Amino acid sequence: MNANEFPVLKITNITWDKDHDEFEKLPKEVELNWGTKTWNLMRFLIG
């Protein structure tokens, strides 16, 4: 990765509390777990 590039982490399948009517009640932290130490690096172009 070059010095001016940043990694992007895509987070999916988050189950939010269905009773979150107010913004303040949304989670402030997310715990991330990986199944293996093998990372798949992919580059996407946004244009």
Fold blueprint:
Layout: no helix or strand
Shape: elongated
Q: How big a fraction of the residues is strand?
A: under 5%
How widely separated are the two ends?
Answer: 19 Å
Main β-sheet description: none
Mean pLDDT, all residues = 69
Radius of gyration: 16 Å
Low-confidence segments: none
Structural class designation? little secondary structure
Helix content: under 10%
Number of strands: 0
Number of helices, where a helix is a run of at least 4 consecutive DSSP H or I residues: 0
Give a short synopsis of this structure.
This protein has no helices and no strands.
Descriptive key words:
little secondary structure, 0% helix, elongated, 47 residues
Plain-language structure description:
This protein is low in regular secondary structure and 47 residues long. The protein has no helix or strand. It is elongated, with a radius of gyration of 16 Å. The model has no long low-confidence stretch (mean pLDDT 69).
